[in-house]
Backbone:
């Protein structure tokens, strides 16, 4: 008789444990799933937010070029860091993202000898390749290279702005175009 009374109690405890386990799993999926799904979403959006490579290499700005694939786990892991870099530097640097699974980019894949992903290439404003990173990279390494490019770009702008200022000063003199002097 006593065992019959314990069975409903055990069933209730078992049900409570199962409910707690399910709740814990759902909580973990919500908490950690957001990170996984965010990275996947970021990778999918890279193609949409990317500047066309033809424009990037002709607009006189340094270029960050990443080759990636949506199925690549390392690409997913690096996506939030790359996205943060893009937000920080996008005013001064072109960001181009090319999915290696898209045959449209085969000529760039061959040109830049992509043999592992993610592959990040950094170019100066003239389109000269300065750095290549293949595989998982620490954000600070990429950031250091970008900062180096940005410093070179700003120092060149300072020179150009300085020269422009001198020309502007000369125009303020009392010389008219008819005076030839």
Residues:
């Amino acid at each position: 008789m006593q065992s019959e009374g314990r069975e409903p109690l055990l069933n209730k405890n078992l049900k409570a444990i199962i409910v707690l386990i399910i709740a814990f799993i759902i909580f973990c999926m919500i908490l950690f799933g957001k990170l996984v799904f965010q990275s996947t979403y970021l990778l999918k959006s890279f193609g949409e937010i990317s500047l066309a490579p033809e424009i990037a290499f002709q607009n006189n700005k340094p270029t960050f070029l990443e080759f990636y694939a949506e199925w690549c786990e390392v690409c997913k892991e690096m996506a939030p860091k790359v996205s943060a870099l893009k937000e920080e530097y996008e005013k001064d640097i072109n960001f181009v993202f090319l999915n290696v699974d898209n045959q449209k980019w085969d000529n760039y894949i061959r040109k830049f000898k992509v043999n592992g992903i993610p592959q990040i290439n950094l170019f100066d404003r003239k389109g000269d390749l300065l750095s290549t990173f293949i595989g998982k990279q620490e954000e600070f390494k990429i950031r250091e290279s970008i900062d180096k490019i940005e410093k070179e770009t700003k120092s060149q702008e300072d020179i150009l702005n300085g020269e422009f200022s001198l020309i502007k000063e000369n125009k303020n003199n009392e010389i008219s175009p008819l005076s030839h002097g």
The longest strand covers residues 63-68. The two ends are 119 Å apart (CA to CA). Residues 164-172 have pLDDT under 50 and may be disordered.
